[in-house]
Amino acid sequence: MTALPxxxxxxxxxxxxxxxxxVVCLVARLRIPDAVADGxxxxxxxxxRTGMPAATLGRLLRAAAALDVLTxxxxxxxxxxxxxxxxxxxxxxxxxxxxxxTTPSLWAAWGAxxxxxxxxxxxxxxxxxxxxxxxAGVDEQLGRVFHxxxxxxxxLQIPVILETxxxxxxxxxxxxxxxxxxxxxxxxxxxxxxxxVLFDLPETVPQASALDGLEERAERVxxxxxxxxxxxxxxxxxxxxxxxxxxxxxVQILRVIREAASPGARVVAVEFVVPAxxxxxxxxxxxxxxxxxxxxxxxxxxxEHANLQKEAGLEPLGSIPTRSPISLVEAxxxx
Length: 335
Prior knowledge:
It is a single chain. This protein is an alpha/beta fold. 46% of the residues lie in helices and 16% in strands. The termini are far apart.
């Protein structure tokens, strides 16, 4: 049966999506959205600012304008398009994501997707000889972009988490794998009666500047969440922690929390929950991203999360959707 013309058009868009991504991300890396934020600039002005040849830069800008990242004014002036605004260098921006997705190491890893599917192993390590976390620790440019992306994601997710879940019923929360304390800091500032513990690697917790000024209510503890976590908390938060690990290690993290927690305590994992059926959604494709980039990490369905919770000795309480791609997967420590 001959494919319908509209199917060919739709498929062509998918096949060329990687080309479009490169156009958008290079425009972002050149900081062109910031350059034209206050008014349009000529091609020559943008060439001077970016250090790019005008002849080839003009072709890039024309393509970006076709995607509504930029606008055109006359033959050689460019302004900010509706899709260019979120690429400006400011809080809540998608700039860091644009930079990260097209770094050579990540781009090469996606080119080896067949290796990840065939072996179940990270194609990032296969191509680069190290894990993403290892390489980000020694490659200054990758490390800068990677941490900027994580910070930007947290800035977008914190308001969603705070508005979705009732934190007022708890007295002491432990943010497991809480990084530099952005989520815990926001949570404590929103709930003055709440106390908290930031738990992460010993070398990470001293960098938690988000907890500055909260010393009377915020404790910093370094350790290994595969071995132990702080006790005597009635809420344990894990924001995008479980998806970094395979099922065995994810269960181990949850089991360690159950052993430390008091009966009735809650465990809330902030995760991208994959739809049960084959729906188009962020989590569905983030799951492939985890296959490529991590050592066994994955996104999971609500049922798969419940299975992990049960295996760890927790009582599943369900998945709470939000207005963003993240969900809050809740469990209780049995009484």
